[in-house]
Amino acid sequence: MSENIYTFLIRLFPSHFREAYGDAALQLFRDRSRDEKGFFPRLRLWLDLLADLAISIPREYRYAQAVRQQVAPVPGFHFVADESPGRGALLCGAVLSLVGIEAFSLLSGHFTKHQQVPRNIAALIGQVETGGQDGEQATERQRVLRQVIANLKQYYVDPNAAVQIANALKTHQASGDYDALTGAALADLLTRQMREVSGDRHLIVEYSQTPLPAQPPQGPTPESIARYRAAMEQNNCMFEKIETLPHNIGYLKLNAFPEPSVCGPTADAAMASLNHADAIIFDLRDNTGGFPDMVALMAAYLFDHPEYLYNPREKPTELSWTRSPVPGNKLADKPVYVLTSARTLSGAEQFTYDLKMLKRATLVGETTGGAAHAGVWHRIDDHFGMGIPEVKAINPFSKTDWEGSGVEPDVKVNAADALNVARKLAERQAEREIIYKRGH
Amino acid sequence: MPKRKLDPLPSAAFQILLSLAGEDLHGYAIMRQVAEQTEGRMRLGPGTLYGSIRTLLEAQCVEEVGEGAERRRYYRLTTAGRNLARAEADRLADLLRVARAKKIFKGDYV
To answer: Which one of B10, B43, B108 has the shortest CB-CB distance to A48?
Structure first.
């Protein structure tokens, strides 16, 4: 029955689409209705289909029209009507559309959520680069360069290197390297040249199309804290899932490392709820970072003694050591797996990197995004700013951190497969331990 | 069709390119892969899926690779398609940098 309805609806598409993709579209419908059984999946399937028809049918007719216009580039009249869909199909489509619109208004929350974001992004990246007069550009170049050099000399962690970098930039300027460069191209070249001299990947000049705020906010306002708290409460402090998988494997999906004064109790409760697990999987595939204090709070559960956690943004303080052992905690000697993806960033990379270097976890997934963000931000003007490392963090593990390169996993698999792979590893490890205990 | 249809790159087209980054897939497998990589937020219907595939085919960002089992058409990512996806990813990374530059949270990595 429903297949007949959909076959009927496909007739609403113009002939060029039906001929090319009609069968494939029907096949897709069959595949989905085979896999999406039950009342709600089925309802969702039909809402998807109606939304899809509403969006794509007009587009296909516009496309058909555009193709005809390309064939006859001479101004003239087009026979738009030769592609009119059948009357029965139109009626059926109209009734179903009305049903669909009703349902949409009920479920609009769900749909606006993910349509809003791409539009904002498109608006931001779609902005056309506006260039001023040549003279203005030259003045801006000089101003940017002067400020970059001044900032380096004032703030860069290594004053001697700052002078070397400044001299190199001045040489490049004298030889005309920057002439005719503006915006992002200028920022990228400056970044490259600063890094060539210093080898420091935390040095960066950035260009922003949208004007940068005049003053960086001086600490959080009470309103912003209240907003943050409300958002965290609504999202369970970014703990998306906490559960015990078969074979007593604890699984925790955390999508940020939120502020401990707001989310510390939630984090403690989450770890306590997995206290009896035989192994623990941290899913950081969608974790884009957060607060180093929260990284330390979570990591504290994985050690039975204070352990130094490297953070590229800070000199070691007593807060750089985990507050281990945590009273009552039983996870300090349990196997740990961390799931990573290319979207694992920043604070989540710190967690991943430190556990890897301390040989405390097996990393499963993809190389992480590579954002250490160790530079302190300095605004140069409305569009330019730069990041300068102002402290020398002590990295006991390696000369470099993960800036630009990401953290390499121990077991490299697609992010989508990482959970299954880690579960198998954890199960095998558990079996080995059972055999070992029997032997002793 | 003119290439500007992919500029700006519609999110459905971007997701399809990403879904083909690993292996060649047929239509339904693309739909499922996209649903998986967006955690169910984007479930492509037939019109959007094949409309986008057609646009990508015309821009030579994907190519058909004959019919596999069950007589389904498989699609493969071309070098141009990979470059387009990479350019889009770079643009998004730039946006992230802007967001970071705005210092949304002091002391936060963003």
So the answer is: B43
Q: Which residues of B touch A125 (CB under 8 A)?
A: 8, 91-92, 94-95
- Measure the CA–CA gap between A143 and A137, rounded to whole angstroms: 10
**CATH class of residue range A230-370+406-439:** alpha beta
Token output for B95: 């946006």
Q: Is A62 on the interface with B (CB under 8 A)?
A: no
Query: What does the block give as tokens for A359?
Result: 């040989």
Is B31 in contact with A345 (Cβ distance < 8 A)? Answer: no
Checking if the pLDDT of A182 tops 90, the result is no
Name the token pair of A244. 């015990």
**Per-domain residue ranges of chain B:** 3-101
A24 and B54 in contact by Cβ < 8 A? no
Q: Give the closest-approach CA distance of B72 to chain A in angstroms.
A: 8
Residue B16 in contact with residue B56, Cβ under 8 Å? Answer: yes
Contact A290 B108 (CB under 8 A): yes
Of the partner residues A17, A24, A289, the one whose CB lies closest to the CB of residue B27: A24
CATH number of this structure's domain B3-101: 1.10.10.10
A247 secondary structure, DSSP code: G
3-state secondary structure of A329: coil
* DSSP, residue by residue, A346-409: THHHHHHHHHHHTT--EEEES--------SEEEE-SSSEEEEE--S----SS-S--STTT-PPP
Mean residue pLDDT across chain A: 83
Cis? peptide before B8, omega within 30° of 0: yes
User: Could you report the per-residue pLDDT of A391-419, keeping only the tens digit for each?
Assistant: 878 888 888 888 878 999 999 999 999 99
CB contact under 8 A, B47 and A290: no
Asked whether A252 and A307 are in contact (CB, 8 A), the reply is no
Check whether A237 has a pLDDT greater than 80.
yes
CA A289, CA B101: separation in Å to the nearest integer? Answer: 15
**Chain B residues within an 8 Å CB radius of A57:** 47
Q: Measure CA A20 to chain center.
A: 36
- Cβ partners under 8 Å of residue B54, min gap 6: A17, A20, A21
Cβ-nearest to A59 among B51, B53, B106: B51
pLDDT for A381 equals 87
